[in-house]
C-alpha cells in the first residue's frame, strides 16, 4: 500500500471544487439564506417547511388511506413538529432511514405578563430560552414574532421588525462612562436575566397621568392586532435578531445568520427528502422542537411524536401493524442526528483539541459522541455504523471530517442522538461546523452546508 494511502488526510471542499460544483455551492446557499429569513421562530420554520413540502407533492397523512412505495406524506403535531416520509420499496420490517433535526433556537421569550412602564418608557419582560451569552443580546435590533391566542379561539400572528420600514426593538446597555462596577464583574454576572427587558415605546397616551406610555402601547396593540393585556398570558411571542442572513467575507464564502443551529441541518435535510424519489427503505425527515432546553414536552424528542408518526405510516402499509412491529422497525433502523458542532475558531483555538476538531471548509462533520466530561448524556455511535457511513461518504465522493465538541473536561453539549438511540436505532451525529454557535449571528461555510446536503441525500438513498 502506498504511503499516502496509509495516512488519514483532511481535505478542503473549496480546494477540490471545480467550476460547476462551485456554482452549485453558491446557488444552494442563496436558497438557504431565503429559508433562514422566513423561519426565525419554531412556528414560522414549521410553517415554511409544511408549505414547501405541500408544494413538492407531500400529502397530509390524514388524507391517505393506503400507502405504496414512492408515496410522499407529511405528519404534523401542535403546529411545531413535522415528519416528512417517502415510502420505500421494502417494508417497515426492514427498518427506516431517519434524519432528525431541531427547529428551535436560542431566543428571548416574552413573560406571561410582560408589559410595564418605568421612567417614562414602556418595556417587555423576557425570559431567555436555551443557552445564551446574555451580553450578546443587548444593543442590537430585535424583531418580535409569534402568536397571540385570544380567549375566543382566534389566533393572531405577530411579526414586527423584519420588513422594510418596520420598527425594531432593543435591550439597552450601560454606557462605558458609568460601567466601572459592571466591568469588574464576571461575564456571567454583569448582566442578569431580569435585565433583558425589551424597549418598546416612549409616547404617553394624551390625558393620562399614570402609566400613559403603557396605555398608549396597549391602544396601538389593540388597534393593530385586536389584543388586550390579558391576551399576553396565552401568547407565544419571541424576540429574535432583526437582521437577515448575510454573506460574510470578500469572497462570500460564509453565511452569517441567526439560528443556523440547527436550521442549517433543517434545510439540508429538507432538500434531501424533497429530492428522494423511491428509496430502498422508507425515508423520514424529522423536524423536532425543544432540543435547546432538553427535548422536553409533547413537541420535543422525548415526546411520542416520532412513534405516533411511524405507526400512522405502518397502519397504512399493513392494517395489522402494532407496537411490537414498531419497535422491531426501530431496532432495524438507521438514523442521523442532524445537528451542528463547533468549528475551530482562530480567535479561540485553545478550547479545542486540534487533531479531533472540525475545520470550517473541511466538509460535513461526523461526530461519534457529544456529551460532557466522561461522555455523559451521549449516544457514542458504534464502530460498525461509523464504518457504514464512511463507506457511503467515500462512494459519493463527499468531503467529510470528524469533530468533537471541545477538549475533554472543557465543556460539552448534547443532541437528540441519545434519545433516538434509546428507541433502538443505530444513530450518529452528523452536521455542519459553526463559528459563534448560539450567538445572535452564527457563521457557517457555504461549502460545508452543501456537503451536508449531499450527505443527507446519499443517506436517504442508500
TrEMBL record:
Keyword Protease tagged: yes
InterPro entries: Peptidase_M18 (IPR001948), Peptidase_M18_dom2 (IPR023358)
GO cellular component: cytoplasm
Example GO BP: proteolysis
Cofactor (UniProt): Zn(2+)
Keyword terms of this UniProt record: Aminopeptidase, Hydrolase, Metal-binding, Metalloprotease, Protease, Zinc
GO molecular function terms noted in the UniProt entry: aminopeptidase activity; metallopeptidase activity; zinc ion binding
A Pfam match: Peptidase_M18
EC number: 3.4.11.-
SUPFAM superfamilies: Aminopeptidase/glucanase lid domain, Zn-dependent exopeptidases
Family according to the record: Belongs to the peptidase M18 family.
Name assigned to this protein: M18 family aminopeptidase
Amino acid at each position: 500500500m502506498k504511503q499516502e494511502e496509509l495516512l488519514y488526510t483532511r481535505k478542503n471542499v473549496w480546494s477540490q471544487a471545480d467550476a460547476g460544483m462551485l456554482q452549485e455551492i453558491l446557488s444552494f446557499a442563496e436558497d438557504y439564506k431565503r429559508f433562514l429569513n422566513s423561519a426565525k421562530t419554531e412556528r414560522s420554520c414549521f410553517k415554511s417547511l409544511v408549505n414547501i413540502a405541500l408544494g413538492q407533492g407531500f400529502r397530509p397523512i390524514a388524507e391517505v388511506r393506503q400507502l405504496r412505495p414512492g408515496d410522499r406524506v407529511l405528519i404534523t403535531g401542535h403546529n411545531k413538529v413535522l415528519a416528512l416520509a417517502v415510502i420505500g420499496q421494502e417494508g417497515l420490517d426492514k427498518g427506516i432511514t431517519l434524519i432528525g433535526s431541531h427547529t428551535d433556537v436560542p431566543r428571548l421569550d416574552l413573560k406571561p405578563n410582560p408589559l410595564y412602564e418605568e421612567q417614562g418608557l414602556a418595556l417587555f419582560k423576557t425570559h431567555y430560552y436555551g443557552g445564551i451569552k446574555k451580553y450578546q443580546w443587548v444593543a442590537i435590533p430585535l424583531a418580535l414574532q409569534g402568536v397571540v391566542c385570544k380567549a375566543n379561539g382566534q389566533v393572531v400572528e405577530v411579526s414586527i421588525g423584519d420588513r422594510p420600514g418596520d420598527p425594531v426593538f432593543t435591550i439597552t446597555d450601560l454606557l462605558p462612562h458609568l460601567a466601572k462596577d459592571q466591568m469588574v464583574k464576571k461575564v456571567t454576572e454583569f448582566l442578569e436575566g431580569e435585565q433583558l427587558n425589551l424597549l418598546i415605546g416612549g409616547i404617553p397616551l394624551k390625558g393620562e397621568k399614570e402609566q400613559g406610555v403603557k396605555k398608549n402601547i396597549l391602544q396601538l396593540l389593540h388597534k393593530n392586532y385586536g389584543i388586550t393585556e390579558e391576551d399576553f398570558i396565552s401568547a407565544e411571542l419571541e424576540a429574535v435578531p432583526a437582521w437577515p442572513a448575510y454573506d460574510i467575507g470578500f469572497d462570500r464564502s460564509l453565511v452569517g445568520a441567526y439560528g443556523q443551529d440547527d436550521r442549517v441541518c433543517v434545510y439540508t435535510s429538507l432538500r434531501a427528502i424533497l429530492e428522494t424519489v423511491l428509496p430502498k427503505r422508507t425515508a423520514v425527515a424529522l423536524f423536532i422542537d425543544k432540543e435547546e432546553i432538553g427535548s422536553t414536552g409533547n413537541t420535543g424528542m422525548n415526546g411520542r411524536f416520532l412513534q405516533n408518526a411511524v405507526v400512522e405510516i405502518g397502519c397504512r402499509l399493513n392494517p395489522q401493524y402494532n407496537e411490537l412491529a414498531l419497535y422491531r422497525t426501530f431496532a432495524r433502523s438507521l438514523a442521523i442526528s442532524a445537528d451542528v458542532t463547533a468549528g475551530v475558531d482562530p480567535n479561540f483555538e485553545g478550547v479545542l483539541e486540534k487533531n479531533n476538531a472540525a475545520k470550517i471548509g473541511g466538509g460535513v462533520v461526523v461526530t461519534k459522541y457529544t456529551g460532557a466530561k466522561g461522555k455523559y448524556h451521549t449516544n457514542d455511535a458504534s464502530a460498525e455504523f461509523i464504518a457504514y457511513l464512511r463507506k457511503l461518504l467515500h462512494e459519493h465522493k463527499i468531503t467529510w471530517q470528524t469533530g468533537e465538541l471541545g477538549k475533554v473536561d472543557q465543556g460539552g453539549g448534547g443532541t437528540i442522538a441519545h434519545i433516538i438511540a434509546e428507541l433502538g436505532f443505530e444513530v450518529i451525529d452528523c452536521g455542519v461546523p459553526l463559528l459563534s454557535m448560539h450567538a445572535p449571528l452564527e457563521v457557517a461555510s457555504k461549502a460545508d452546508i452543501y456537503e451536508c446536503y449531499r450527505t443527507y441525500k446519499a443517506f436517504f438513498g442508500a
